[in-house]
């Protein structure tokens, strides 16, 4: 996360904290005054809380890592190009009780190629 995105996120958190403190103070003052009206939050506190959430979201999005591809085949292709080091299923594929599917496919393809083609 870059410095700029952290600064934006920190500013949003300060605003959110201020909105929370303002809401608490408004609730305390409304309960002490014993108003008969419902103690709804003023519009400025609600707007401050919403704006702070947008600013926090913006800071987090700016500081996020590069997104991974959505398509499974693209993601798997990238892992294959890199040699499979980042493969999250590598432990499962290396288990002894599992078949090596790629080797079996290659054996099958070789077997099909080596079959005698019957003459018509």
Automatic annotation (TrEMBL):
One BP annotation, GO: protein folding in endoplasmic reticulum
Keyword annotations from UniProtKB, A to Z: Membrane, Signal, Transmembrane, Transmembrane helix
Membrane topology category: Multi-pass membrane protein
Keyword Transmembrane helix: yes
Main localization, broad class: membrane
TM annotation in the entry: 46-64
Membrane as UniProt keyword: yes
Cellular-component GO terms for this entry: EMC complex
Pfam families on file: MMgT
InterPro entries assigned to the protein according to its UniProt record, in alphabetical order: EMC_subunit (IPR053279), MMgT (IPR018937)
Signal sequence, renumbered to the chain: 1-19
Cell location: Endomembrane system
PANTHER family xref list: ER MEMBRANE PROTEIN COMPLEX SUBUNIT 5
Family statement drawn from the similarity comment of this UniProt entry: Belongs to the membrane magnesium transporter (TC 1.A.67) family.
Protein name: Magnesium transporter
Top-level taxonomy: Eukaryota, Fungi, Dikarya, Ascomycota, Pezizomycotina
């Amino acid at each position: 996360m870059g410095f700029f995105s952290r600064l934006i996120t920190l500013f949003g958190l300060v605003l959110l904290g201020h909105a929370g403190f303002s809401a608490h103070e408004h609730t305390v003052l409304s309960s002490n005054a014993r108003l008969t009206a419902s103690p709804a939050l003023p519009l400025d506190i609600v707007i401050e809380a919403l704006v702070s959430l947008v600013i926090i979201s913006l800071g987090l999005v700016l500081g996020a890592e590069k997104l991974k591809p959505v398509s499974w085949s693209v993601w798997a292709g990238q892992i294959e190009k890199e040699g499979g080091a980042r493969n999250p299923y590598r432990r499962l594929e290396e288990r002894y009780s599992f078949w090596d599917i790629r080797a079996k496919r290659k054996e099958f393809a070789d077997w099909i190629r080596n079959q005698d083609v019957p003459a018509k």
